Request: fold
Amino acid sequence: MKRYGNFTAVDGVTLRVREGEFFGFLGPNGAGKTTTINAIVGLARKSAGKIAIFGYDNERQWREARRFVGLSPQEFNFDRYLSLRDVLIFAAGYYGIRGKEVVERADMLLERFGLTSHAHLEYTKISGGQKRRLSLARALIHEPRLLILDEPTAGVDVELRLELWRWLRELNQEGLTIFLTTHYLEEAERLCRRIAIIRGGRIVTEKPTEELVAEGESLQDVFLELMRH
Amino acid sequence: MINQVIWPPIITTLLYVLVFGLALGSRIPTVQGVTYAQFLIPGLIVLQVIDASYGECSSSLFQGRFMNSIQELLIAPMSAAEMVGGFILGSLARALLIAGLITALGVLLVHSVPRDWALYLTVIALVSVLFSSLGLIFGLVAEKFDHIAILTTFVITPLTFVGGVFTSAKMLPQTLRNMELFNPIFYAIDAFRRSYTGESDLAPWFSLSMIALLSAIALGIALRMTAVGYKLRT
Reply:
């Protein structure tokens, strides 16, 4: 549970994401998706309840728990004076990664996400799509076991969206657990193995994607139906 | 970086030395056994160390909050002490760099050389920790960039100017001399000047103890605010 004064943003959210799963977390604006994510990563303090990440309590064993999590937030939050390569090198430092390994990982991720030729540019000089890829690369710099993506394809063109989907599928196939929030229901339907829908700070359903889609003509139908009640 | 960090303190110091130290100072007899221009150098170093330490921490932290880049640190497996330590060490590095450059200027322009390097470094470290911690506190409290300047404009600058940069306490009337004892910057400048001239208005151990005490209090508050996530975590 998370309260802000008298306002309850999230209440009674019980979720269990299995290791290696591609999990979708859907809901309308203001439903509590980002609040839930912030509580998982430690940006918001829970008012009540418990969150465990691979068995580690995210408040009592925060150091262990945080090592396992990579976050690509909804809003870009890079240091505007750093180059793309330095964004990754600094982020690696925050996780205690040092020496040659830092540069190797940064260069590998820049290459994987097609950013090598822009490595020395400041982040303000690249496009929105490139920033989105950089955000993903930064979230992966410390090799997390859980990747949390808060609307990773918001505002990107179709071509990049398809490319991001391909990368996310690859990462999931490599064993990475992915927790995705998105407003694009087609995206959730294509990528996620299981989906939870939140409304007004409460989970209204949580099922395997196939089962959920089978309840209507499409995920969009089911989603809209759940929002009506 | 050079335009923001290096040139402003160098140019300001040059102006003070040229206008106050060499032009006006030629009409003032020796102070604490040195020329007025030589007397000015230690005070000017402390002035810039304070400015660099406070500015580095307050603007870095506030900018991080403003652009949300601070979230990178908050989700990383780092304790409040590690975060605060990182900010303070960054400020200390900047303060030492600035102090080194002004010291070199002092050697070149007025042949002013520190005699007691241990005291020189101890005072810079303590002053830097004190004002970096204050920078962190104000970087957390501030809602707008203007708020950060409040401490500089209304507290730090006036206290620095009356804290002994330009005068020895012995040159002041008794009432002002008594008031200096409530000015933390006076202790810093007095102890630091001793590393140059070998003389001070107060015993150096007393001044160092006062700065250390204030640094510990400010550091404790900054650590506590960071640990509870004041204006950092919702």
User: Anything to note?
Assistant: The interface with chain B takes residues 4, 38, 41-45, 62-64, 66-67, 69, 71, 73, 75, 77-80, 90-91, 94-96, 138 of chain A (CB under 8 Å). Chain A has a mean pLDDT of 90. The longest helix of chain A spans residues 158-173. Residues 2-68+144-228 of chain A form a domain with the Rossmann fold fold (CATH 3.40.50.300).
